[in-house]
């Protein structure tokens, strides 16, 4: 298992090339592309080609990529044309992931609550439309757990969809809010295909540096170690609550924290 760094540690919009260069300079050899995860942004062929060129120059590889749930292009939107547009933007990220050598696209899902029943029906429709497209391209969808997630919706999605199409991205920060995430992860660890690693105080989503909050990292690493997942430990920390103003020491700290996790494994 190796270390990976999220591209959005300082900003998730604009040209990501400066961040890629700093990530590589810090010692990372892998990235998870998370830029524009909140926006209705479509990557075109020239943009994807340039990103590939920069990553090749820097010796960086990509395994997973975070697709957006946009404000208008939302793959579980109740408005049908917006849902269909959301499917198209996920297809764009699946194609981008494959072009950059990756094999997993991470997506957000709605909260599992009665008032979201319509959104879950739309989500399942979108998954049905995406399955053949993704399998043909060798890119899996990874659904990400939410804060205070009891995994009821995730468990149903995993039961309804084959492992060669759909798995879990475990977000450690989200799992820590409410305190039950590790228990739920342990029950579905066989379907783990991606991770987002960051810390918090158990109350809000802070994306703090590892070992600065209340996550039981030893238990999380135990679960990951006995799961089939053997790819990358992705640091999804950011500078917002890190105490760092400069990117270089922040990234150096993130890399050192990642090495500590690997020793725990």
Tags for this entry?
265 residues, alpha/beta, TIM Barrel, eight-stranded parallel sheet, 9 helices
Polypeptide structure, described:
With 265 residues, the protein is α/β, with parallel strands linked by helices. It has a single domain (2-264), classed as Divalent-metal-dependent TIM barrel enzymes (TIM Barrel). The chain has 9 helices and 8 strands. An 8-stranded parallel beta sheet has the order 7-6-5-4-3-2-1-8. α1 (17-25) packs parallel to α2. The longest helix has 21 residues, at 117-137. The chain is globular and about 45 Å long.
How is the secondary structure organized here?
Blueprint: E1 2-6, H1 17-25, E2 30-33, H2 45-58, E3 61-66, H3 80-99, E4 104-107, H4 117-137, E5 140-144, H5 152-160, E6 166-171, H6 172-176, H7 181-187, E7 192-196, H8 217-226, E8 232-235, H9 247-264
Parallel strand pairs: 1-2, 1-8, 2-3, 3-4, 4-5, 5-6, 6-7
Helix pairs in contact: 1-2, 3-4
Query: What global shape is seen?
Result: globular
Within the largest sheet, what's the order of strands? 7-6-5-4-3-2-1-8
Top CATH class: Alpha Beta
Helix/sheet category: alpha/beta
Number of helices: 9
Low-confidence stretches: none
The number of distinct structural domains comes to 1
How far the N terminus sits from the C terminus, by CA atoms, comes to 9 Å
Strand element count:
8
Mean pLDDT, all residues: 96
Radius of gyration: 17 Å
Question: Helical amount among residues, as a percent range?
Answer: 40-55%
Provide a concise account of the structure shown.
It contains 9 helices and 8 strands. It has 265 residues and is α/β, with parallel strands linked by helices.
């Amino acid at each position: 298992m190796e270390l990976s760094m999220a591209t959005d540690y300082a900003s998730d919009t604009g040209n990501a090339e400066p961040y890629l260069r700093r990530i590589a300079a810090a010692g990372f050899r892998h990235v998870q592309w998370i830029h524009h995860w909140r926006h209705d942004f479509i990557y075109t062929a020239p943009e994807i080609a340039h990103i590939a060129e920069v990553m090749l120059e820097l010796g960086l590889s990509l395994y997973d990529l975070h697709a957006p749930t946009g404000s208008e292009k939302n793959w579980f939107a109740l408005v049908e044309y917006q849902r269909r547009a959301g499917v198209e933007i996920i297809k764009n990220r699946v194609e981008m992931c494959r072009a950059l050598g990756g094999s997993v696209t991470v997506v957000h899902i709605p909260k599992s609550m009665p008032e979201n029943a319509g959104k879950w029906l739309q989500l399942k429709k979108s998954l049905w439309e995406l399955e053949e497209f993704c399998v043909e391209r060798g890119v899996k969808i990874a659904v990400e757990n939410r804060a205070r997630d009891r995994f009821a919706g995730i468990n149903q999605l995993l039961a309804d969809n084959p492992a060669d199409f759909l798995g879990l991205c475990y977000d450690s920060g989200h799992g820590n809010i409410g305190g039950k995430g590790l228990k739920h992860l342990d029950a579905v660890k066989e379907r783990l295909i991606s991770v987002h690693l960051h810390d918090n105080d158990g109350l809000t989503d802070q994306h703090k540096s590892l070992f600065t909050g209340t996550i039981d990292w030893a238990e999380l690493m135990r679960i990951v170690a006995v799961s089939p997942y053997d790819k990358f430990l992705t640091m999804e920390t950011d500078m917002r609550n890190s105490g760092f103003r400069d990117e270089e020491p922040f990234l150096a700290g993130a890399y050192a924290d990642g090495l500590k996790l690997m020793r725990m494994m």
